[in-house]
Amino acid sequence: MSSLSRDEVAHVAMLARIQLSDEELDKLAGQLDQIVGYVGQVNEIAADDVPPMSHPLPLVNVTRPDEVRPSLTQEQALANAPASDLGRFEVPRILDED
């Protein structure tokens, strides 16, 4: 296991454009070194007969198939709208465009 130096942590922080104080660099160097060590332990334990997986349980797609069904017309959908314009719902502006 290689230990991460303070300079390496500072370099990664610079690449990520994160400003860290000297105390934060010292603290993170130790924490990141521990994390790398834990990952190394997991790699040592991982057996060759266990396939890599992204999730511990099998995932099944639970969406229903698309079915064409009748729906509202544009006029019906806009019938009870407080305001509409050019066939669309009109809502108050919440963001200014600069």
Give a verbal description of the structure.
- The protein is mostly helical.
- The chain has a domain of 40 residues: Orthogonal Bundle (Histone, subunit A).
- 40% of the residues lie in helices and 4% in strands.
- It contains three helices and two strands.
- Strand 1 and strand 2 form a beta hairpin.
- Helix 1 crosses helix 2.
- The longest helix has 24 residues.
- Pfam families: GatC.
- One of its GO terms (biological process) is translation.
- It is an enzyme of class 6 (ligase).
- Belongs to the GatC family.
- This is Aspartyl/glutamyl-tRNA(Asn/Gln) amidotransferase subunit C.
What's the structural blueprint in terms of helices and strands?
Blueprint lengths: L5 H10 L6 H24 L28 H5 L5 E2 L2 E2 L9
Antiparallel strand pairs: 1-2
Helix pairs in contact: 1-2
The CA-CA distance between the termini, in Å, is: 52 Å
The tally of strands reads 2
Name the CATH class of the domain at 6-45.
Mainly Alpha
Mean pLDDT: 87
User: What is the CATH superfamily of the domain at 6-45?
Assistant: Glu-tRNAGln amidotransferase C subunit, N-terminal domain
Largest sheet: 2 strands, antiparallel
Q: According to CATH, what is the topology of the domain at 6-45?
A: Histone, subunit A
Keywords: ATP-binding, Ligase, Nucleotide-binding, Protein biosynthesis
GO molecular function: ATP binding; glutaminyl-tRNA synthase (glutamine-hydrolyzing) activity
Enzyme class: ligase
Catalytic activity: L-aspartyl-tRNA(Asn) + L-glutamine + ATP + H2O = L-asparaginyl-tRNA(Asn) + L-glutamate + ADP + phosphate + 2 H(+); L-glutamyl-tRNA(Gln) + L-glutamine + ATP + H2O = L-glutaminyl-tRNA(Gln) + L-glutamate + ADP + phosphate + H(+)
